[in-house]
Records
---
Amino acid sequence: MDGHWQYNPAFYGEIEDLFQAHNPALIVLMLEGGECARSGFHWPAEPFDFCLPGESLRPVQGLGGIIPYDLMRENARSKHYLLTSEFLAKIALSRQAPWVSISPPPVVGDDAFLIRMLLRQPLIRDEVRASGVPPAEWRRKMWVLLTSLMREMYESHDAPFLLPPAGTIDKDGFLAPEFYHDALHGNRHYGALVLRQIDEVLAQVTERETV
Amino acid sequence: MTHPYEGIPPHQLWLRSIAGVVPDEVDPVVMGKFKITPQDKVATAGLCFARNIARHLKAAGFNYYVSEPANPIISPGLAEKFGYGIFTARYGNIYTPRQLLQTLRRAYGEFHPVEDVWQLVDGRIVDPFRPQIQPDGFISMDEFNADRRAHFAAIRRAVEQLDVLVFTLGLTETWYSRLDGAVFPVCPGVAGGQFDDTRHGFLNFSVTDIITDLEKSILIIREKNPTSRFILTVSPVPLVATAIDRSVLVSTTYSKSVLRVAAEEIARYDRGIAYFPSYEIITGSYTRGAYFADDLQSVTEAGVSHVMKLFLRHYADGANQVVEDHSPAHETAREARMPEAAAVMCDEKALDVETVANE
């Protein structure tokens, strides 16, 4: 609409109705989570590497020159989160309850497992069959970059950002194998830990209200 | 013939080629020294004014050569903000031939300045030789080193593959390291680093210095790329500030005069080196200052268009020869954007702290 992507305006009314009908004690936001992992599944037209703050650059085979982190970040911010941020600003007007956002699960580091999962997905399987997936280290860095932007976006709307539960990330920064489910999601054990995180936040909210 | 002035062509006569001609039609180029085909890779280096040349070359269908482009995932506006595509490689402004020479020598591993890195208080890293290429600096030494390796490789590619280098001479004043003579595009302390007069000195190059540095630079390029040709221009943009205790106007005149003479000397006897009079086109008295914006420093779009019209007329061989519209309406819109455009890459602007703060 008007040359810009935007959510269907009717959706805002539906959200408002939901808020009024259920009067939630806490709103949990999980928008754009898939994008953080999915961005790492596709080889870019010109493969590139980049650095993350606080980490040394580990050379990865098959990647080209680097894109400075600040540039990556600004570019990703303008491409990924403007629409969602706009959406949050609008629904913030009708919310009564506090809200919290949750991080998407860390990326799967096991290439073979990931490829097996992606080959089941019609939209990407041909690409994966033809080119495989980018290196795990690069996927991890894309996830770190995009989740940091997601966190920044949520926090700018007063929605605290819950990191992946303790113990779900292995020593190399990937989803620990015992929490594997598919290409994008953690399994029910992962889900249980996230629910526990949300419970803790809810308890704090309830306690504040009681006081 | 009774005397040498008898029968000379109109372009040699002031009244007939300058005062008696509509300003838009004044043509001090007269004849290009060589032609550039649409296939020729045209590289640029120099300072802010050169970026206008790049923009028009692209619009006119020339093969404007960028050896260090941004990755295609980056949006064009952001790429420019980070210094991609403004010049052939991401070297930012190259103000002096000494800086050009040292840039080339560094790219080929022949010069390793002692003061090679500036660290900001937040730990970020600034490249002393392109201090504003990365708006907030590099996040780590790893990033800095990886980027610089790629940058040097891009410079080498440019040197070895360019057909024509358009180099815009900008300044004679510079600051250098007393340790090894490395020159900085901006005085240490302005956009990074710390000024220390035991380590940093000031130089105002002479004609001989400029000629020597230009000749050495051209020699390096020709050694790698024997058929390369050069077009030298002098930026008409006045100095933002002078480090000498005298009027900035006097320093500007010195600087431009030295550069102009040096360009003349270098180009005079070499068929592969041309001088292009953009300085004269913009600053000539026939314009009555009309090609300068309100700050009397930035060149208006009409001025740039005049320069490029003549550039294309005399140097283009089969290229599109389209010069951007500079009708009044278009001009107004363009000029409204000019301060922003100029602010992007002119490191030198940082010298005038008060003006920058008020912008």
---
Amino acid sequence: VAGTRVEVAPARTWRIEIADVALHHVTGLHTGGARAAVRLRAFILTASVARLASPVGAHDRAVVEAGVLARGAWQGALRAGVERLLLDRAAAATWRVAGVISRVDVGRVSMIADLDVIQGHALYETTLSLSGVARVGAAQLIGSVRIDGDRFAGSGLSISARVHTHLSLLAGYHDGTESLRAGAVIGWGGIEVAAGVSQHPVLGLSQGVSIACAR
Amino acid sequence: MTRAVLVVALPAALACATAPSRDLTMLPPSDSLGTVWGDEYEEPFEAEDASHRAHGISAEWVDGDTQSARLDAYARGARVRIRSSPRGDTAALQWEGTGVIREVAVGHVAPFVADGALAGDMRASSDLRAPGTTGVRGLRMLPSTSPWSAARGAGVVGAAGAFRIGLGAVEAHDDPSRRFGFGSVEHRAAATTIGIAAGARTDRATTDTAVSCFAARHDDLWFASAEVAAARGHVRAVARLVAGERREWSAIAIAGSGPARDEPLAFSRRERWGAALERRDTWARGASRGGVSSLTRRDDTGDIRRRRIFWDGMWRINERARVELAARVTREESETRATGWLSALPVRESADDWRARVTLRTQSPAGGGSGSVSNAYRLEWVQNRSGRPGTVATWTCRMEAGPLDARVSTTAHALLPGQLAYEPDAAPLAAEYAAIAGKGATITTSVRVWLQRHAWLGATWSRRPPADARLWIVAGARL
């Protein structure tokens, strides 16, 4: 819902998460994936796979991240992986993925920088995201900007609030896609179930759900 | 010009006379242009500087796409600087003493005399900020690491009581037949310096001579200097006034007049005049400064007049983080004169731009407390007269842990949908931030490993689209 990633290391020792999103009420157009993250003392290891499926083909992405934590004030990780595009009537194309992510916690504010580089098949693309999280009581304000290549992809602003011990509500807006987003997270023990919707002014509604388990 | 100097300097001097002095060291550091701008592309590693030590040697060798070598050595007041790169090689020996012989410089050097009417105008390069450098000296031969500006030669400065005598000679690096000779005599009292300097230039066809006299006075509130040079029947004069240095208010005014467009003097031909006023404030958790400046540069082929208003400030969030804000508006008018037999019409151009940036800098302990991680996150907005605002995002991370020193720096220039560019290539400010040239962010990553803190081995990978990636290896040692 926030539209940006704000965590590098799992809050607990390990975390597994799966998600699926149906996009814009188009039959066969959906995205989903899984992520597993583990923290061993000062080291972080994360693996994730994702697939964007459509009636004309699929786009897959698999990456692993390895990083470190520094006294809870900084955490960073390097990323490597592959992306593969397979269309029904064309040969598959594969690109290499590399990147780095860094998060700094300063009091109630966290700053995240995420650089992603895709290279191969005469393609060189970068995505640079800068995000900030400000915590005020039970609420969090999340802002982000993203630049894809030499294009400004837009900025987003989200707010999340814990309204109950086991319930959090989220809402956000992204000016690049002019889409509104909202969601809810129910947490019980180490289990988190989240559901959210995104309303695009032209393409319509998308809805998704994720389940996470952490210990 | 005199009127402008008085208008700018008088209020500043009055303010300085009543304002208490404060510690202004917490202001953001300035870059080589004298501003807080222009550090988007930080070098992978800072050059090892051993100059603070009485004895030391630092050597570095770079292989790969950027082949170069450097050597710095210091001992007993002497320093040796050797640079080798595809652009050219330079080497210089400089020695400073406290006896009769005060300075000796041999090798690739550049001559400087007083305020630059005769040689070496250092008053302002591309920007004018107050306070400027205060102080005037006679002939100095300063080592230069620039293959273009350096000349081969030698110089010596001697002292006898309140008098200083400087002698030097150089030959141009691109034409050894062009030779220059300089000499100066200056007298220094408590707050006043006066002196004369002379120079001669000879090449295959002609021999020119020039002479100048200079004077300067300095006290706690203000500094003033002037120099008048004459060569080949032409007279050139420059002046500088600085008020309020190291105080809340400061002002600088420079002026020059001379035959820049006509028969060139034997030496410097550039004229600059302008004024700048700056206000600085500090408080418990931060500092700020703001100011206005106007600088006119007259060169051989045209005039450039730049007017600027700027403000920047810094707030400390806590001991590990601080926020920096900065903004400036620039208006630049340039005029290029017609030249040649088939002369074109004179070209007059105006360019406006504004820039604003916000930077968060943090420093966190790492490596069990023995190291640190520094992060800088920056967003910047740029707009010129013809375009819409563009966005520049920069992230720099540096980690030092034990023998490991690693850095990642990336800068992405973003255009809005339908926008082609926000910076004209011909803008005089082009050197300060890159134009949109390729698809993707500029990325530089470096790793360096120290061996017993006396030697290092490192590698740097850099890519600035659309150019291909570059890789080079760095090895160095210091004692």
